[in-house]
């Protein structure tokens, strides 16, 4: 993308769908499931400082139980 971010993974209908990894220029990354272009299902979000969130996502937002 023009802002330096990148997505590697599955696409369907021109949207991120299935499993994939999104990398932000800041060094943050999300690796997990996507639905309709948004983080949905099980995934891991790792901040550039090493902090990690693992759990459920719904509609692009952290949702439910997490570790």
TrEMBL record:
Keywords: Repeat. GO terms for cellular component: cytosol; membrane. InterPro entries: MORN. It holds the Pfam family MORN. PANTHER family: RADIAL SPOKE HEAD 1 HOMOLOG. This is Uncharacterized protein.
């Amino acid at each position: 993308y023009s802002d330096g971010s990148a997505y590697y993974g599955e696409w369907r209908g021109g949207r991120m769908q299935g499993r994939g990894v999104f990398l932000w220029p800041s060094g943050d990354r999300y690796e997990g499931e996507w639905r309709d272009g948004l983080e949905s299902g099980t995934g891991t979000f790792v901040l550039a400082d090493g902090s990690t969130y693992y759990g459920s996502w719904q509609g692009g937002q952290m949702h439910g139980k997490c570790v």
